[in-house]
Amino acid sequence: MALMELQWQYRASRVLMTAHQLGFFAALREPKTSIEVAAQCGTHADMTEKLLIACCAMGVVRREGDCFTLTPLARDMLLPESPRYIGGVLDHGENLWWTWTGLTEWVRTGQRESTPKAPEPYASHWHENWIWAMHGIGANGVAQWLARQLDLSDRRNLLDVAGGPGTYSIALCQRFPQLRATVWDLPPTIAIATQVIRRFGMEDRITLQVGDWNKDEFGADYDCLLMGNILHGAGSQADMKLAKAFRALLPGGLLIVHDFLLNNDKSGPLPAALFNINVGAYTIGELLAVVRAAGFKEASLVAYNAQRGSGLVTAVR
Ligand SMILES: C[S@@+](CC[C@H](N)C(=O)[O-])C[C@H]1O[C@@H](n2cnc3c(N)ncnc32)[C@H](O)[C@@H]1O
Fold first, then answer.
1. pLDDT of 155-192, one tens digit each?
2. Is the pTM here over 0.90, yes or no?
3. What integer best gives the mean pLDDT of the chain?
4. Does the Cβ of 88 fall within 6 Å of ligand 1?
């Protein structure tokens, strides 16, 4: 039964993405019948009710007689006004849906390009959806988890290389009041980080800086440096990025690497194994080895989140 359930999980995933895309969750800010939801969203009444029943079974919608309403979980994660909104995760999920749909051909040919593109408007908003997805993931516990594993109470100046929407810098600055951070990333990402940092009221603690790791140095004189989700296995130019990180840190500076990591015998866990198919992942041992090879000392795994398949490695310059 467990194996068959695993196989069927795509149906629930599709229902969640479709309900989000059709605006069902926004429509249910106030309780409504399925006919009212269908009228507001321009959808078919019977199919709307069927989707809403499935949303009830998933715990995001509650049924009260003929009316449907959002559960507290859905209010917290599925409405755009919430700081933990995961609309980006669902939109990015639509892009990846098509990539995974083409997996058979991809495995046959080794050509990721052979996978189908998502329909518009998803394909042309790929970068934006991806960065908002990073925020949704970070803001729902992962960034706080990372901040709890570290002691940066004697550090002042963090560089968040390819810091994306800035969610991890925000969590670290919230936990360590003396810390200031610089989120360094490509221009379209910095445009989103600007919105996120303003939303969290962190403009006085977090600076934004445009950079491209293929052309630019990361800067200098930082006493800690975060590389979150940018060292994804052999194809990730880890040597080049770590050499630039080494030059950006002061002697004694702390390197912090957070990424999906496979266990050393390459048998899981499942989230890291799936990420490895789509993007790539080191094992814990491989990551420690590349960090040491870049000249860092005291490299060690300080925490591993097996449910998520991600680990946290620190080392000293
Ligand atoms: C997987 S996201 C990680 C974001 C964030 N560190 C996190 O953990 O959520 C990868 C980041 O790398 C950035 N990036 C991609 N190519 C880059 C480049 N050439 N130079 C600088 N940043 C780049 C993207 O804009 C994105 O923010």
1. 999 999 999 999 999 999 999 999 999 999 999 999 99
2. yes
3. 97
4. no
Which residue out of 185, 208, 214, 244 has the highest number of ligand 1 atoms within 8 Å of its CB and is therefore the one to mutate?
Answer: 185
pLDDT of 21 reads: 98
Please give the distance, rounded to the nearest whole angstrom, from the Cα atom of residue 212 to the centre of ligand 1. 9
Domains of the chain, start order: 2-77 (1.10.10.10), 87-129 (no CATH), 137-316 (3.40.50.150)
Atom of ligand 1 nearest to the CA of 226: 6
Task: Check if 9 has its Cβ closer than 6 Å to any atom of ligand 1.
Answer: no
Which atom of ligand 1 is closest in space to residue 131's alpha carbon? 27
Q: What pLDDT does 60 receive?
A: 98
296 contact partners, CB below 8 Å, separation of at least 6: 242, 246, 255, 315, 316, 317
Q: How far apart are CA 63 and CA 55, in angstroms?
A: 10
Rounded to whole angstroms, the Cα distance separating 280 from 282 reads 7
